[in-house]
Amino acid sequence: MWVYHTGKMYTDAAIVLYEYQKTRNSSHSREFLKDFSGTVVIDGYQVYHTLENERKDLKSAGCWNHARHRFSNIVKVLGKEKSKSNLAYDALKQIAAIYKIEGSLSELPPEERQMRKNLQMKSIFEAFLSW
Q1: Measured at the alpha carbon of residue 15, what is the angle toward residues 2 and 1, in degrees to the nearest 5?
Q2: CA-based end-to-end distance of the chain
Q3: Closest CA to 10 of 113, 122, 84, 117
Q4: Disulfide engineering: 16 pairs with which of 5, 20, 51, 115, CB 3.0-4.6 Å?
Q5: DSSP codes, 20-63
Q6: In this structure, are residues 26 and 33 in contact, taking their beta carbons and an 8 Å threshold?
């Protein structure tokens, strides 16, 4: 099952599309995305990275919720007190800062939201990636 959907900010034309295929072969997403150019937010499945390498007009971006979930699982296993000195706890705090900024911009028009995200989040992203 392949699932494609618009971002949560696109409320005027929200779409969720379920496409059944017998396999998870890259040919299915390649066909579906053949006329799309831009950025796709992905769950980390390698097929999307393959498509990104094949095309200059397609970029993939990791889903923060998928990343957060992995760190959250570590914190749950350790317990909150033990995890406060753990890298997973630090990662969750950094991701929470990203979510906070994202939430504060949610009511803005798309162009302004993107401009402010670029200004406000760039240093946070860079710090997270270099961390």
Answers
A1: 10
A2: 35
A3: 113
A4: 5
A5: --SS--HHHHHHHTTT--EEEEE-S-HHHHHHHHH-SSEEEEE-
A6: no
Structure tokens at 110: 């798309």
The conformation of residue 1, written as its DSSP 8-state character, comes to -
pLDDT number for residue 18: 94
- pLDDT of 22: 94
Phi-psi label, residue 63: left if phi above 0, alpha if psi -120 to 50, beta otherwise = beta
Among 22, 3, 35, 12, CA closest to 109? 12
Residues of 50-86 as b/e, b for ≥16 C-beta within 10 angstroms?
ebbeeeeebebeeeeeebbeebbeebeeeeeeebeee
Asked whether the beta carbons of 14 and 21 are under 8 A apart, the reply is: no
Alpha-carbon distance of 129 to 131, in angstroms, equals 5
Residues of the chain falling short of pLDDT 50 = none
Q: How many CB atoms lie within 10 A of CB 48?
A: 21
